Amino acid sequence: MKNGKLRAILLAVFAATLLTLVGVFAVLSRAQLPALSYLEPRTVITATPGTEQQDSVEAQTAAPTPVHIIRTPAPVLPQNAVNLLSDGQALFALDSRETAELLVRTYFERCAYESIEQDCFLLKASLVSSVSTVAADGTAEYLSFDAALNKLLKNRSLISVQRTVERAQVQIVEPDTETEQTALLPQGSYLYRRLGTPSRTLILSEILYRDGLAASDVETLRHQATAVSNTSILEGTYLAAQPDREPGRGEGAAGKPAENLKFTPPVRGILTSCFGTRRGVMHYGIDYVAAAGTRIVAPEEGTVVFCGERPGYGFVIDIRHENGFVSRIAPCDDVAVELGQHVSRGAGVARMPDAEGRRQPTLHYELQIDGIPYNPLYYLP
Which residue in 3, 25, 72, 186 could disulfide with 282, CB within 3.0 to 4.6 Å? Predict the structure, then answer.
């Protein structure tokens, strides 16, 4: 009897416990339904009260999945960071005032000296914008030195710089050539009486650059350094009647009077060849034959204007006299004068050289008047 009652009690407790668990599971299941509705849309159909022939269906879509926005925290600025201002406007932030000053100085030097041409030089440069710094407040973009410099160079208007460059130009005008014909020179020969000089004009101008672009170009000076002079050439027209014969003593025209000049032969020797065309070639002087070592003298008072070797002559002594007369003596040996020395008529200047392949030593003497060779025999006793 007692065992039957105990079994009935245990069954009742088991049934109650089971019912309790089923209830809890049902509650938990109903609690998860709203969360599942976010994952899959569902449609709820409701009937409209009072309508027998037609049902009204309303579709309701579940709300979207919430979006979580992740905000990146602002960069932590260095303790001494500053904002660089241009005309009161913040450009960007830098790590310190020293960096800002170095940046502005570097940028200014780049703008001042860039792209200066070879004939130009910098006159002056200045900052047009007002530049300053304030403590960084996190509102301006924080940049490194290089990034900030590149930004300024790409946009010059951020910090405006102007500079003035001076340009020096030289304009050259080449001289013309004037040719005059003369019978004093043989045909086919030319004598440059004057080498022309070109005209050179110096032009200075100032170019104003603003933010790397030329804003104005003003000429400040125009000065003609040298005046042009033309080249003067004498063209010979003289043609000997008998070019193959030896010239005589009186061949060629005489030049202007010697006035106070009294010429003497440069050496005591024998005259062997005269001025004029010989064997088809013009001979511009006279030749003397004398023994090697014979004393050579100055034909007239004057100044030694050349003393040295010349092709085709050997060692030459040129003596300039008054009134445009010049004596040329060659070849010379044991030279006793030097360039610039003043000599008197008859003073020893050198000695006759050895023959050097000739049958006997020969001295050549020319007399030029205003640059043109004349027959010396017209002026010698």
Answer: 186
